[in-house]
Amino acid sequence: MAPTLAKTGSTGSLLNSCTTRACCTTLVWGEYGIRLKDTDRRISAAHLKIADETIKKRLRGMKYRLYHRVAANIGVYTSGNDQRMGKGKGSFDYWAARVPVSRILFELKGEVHEQVVRDAFRLAGNKLPGQYEFVKKGDPPVMGITKLGNGVTEEELRRPRKKLPEPNIMSTAARIPATTPV
To answer: Which is one Gene Ontology cellular component term of this protein (predicted)?
Structure first.
């Protein structure tokens, strides 16, 4: 099989296949997780750090392992409000992460009761922008805001909503005027 070129976005960056599939909406390493519920967000590194500290503070003294599924890898640059247009990009302000809808942010595995983990993730979700939901191992994956399972499949969600009529050559030929005189 010949190698193929990867698809790139408008800026030349590789397109993330996880934003179009249901793979990043399920738990991989942990037993419990927190998932973004409402819309795509840009979450700053400070927000992620505060949420991480909140979870660690609530679970202090227990045996667990916390996995971070999102990294703040986008630099945000700003220029002042009193500046006129032009004259450069501005100075670096903070790091942020773009988080698509239904993405898992944190996973947790360990000897911790489910209600305690649920409470820790609730407190962390209150510190973060947006709405979040608690996820357990074995919950169905999500595409957009639709949960897969119960008869709903990924192929069914990807199909066109409206069936396109197939072109009829005879009706098309009758509509187009002939180029040669008859």
So the answer is: mitochondrial large ribosomal subunit
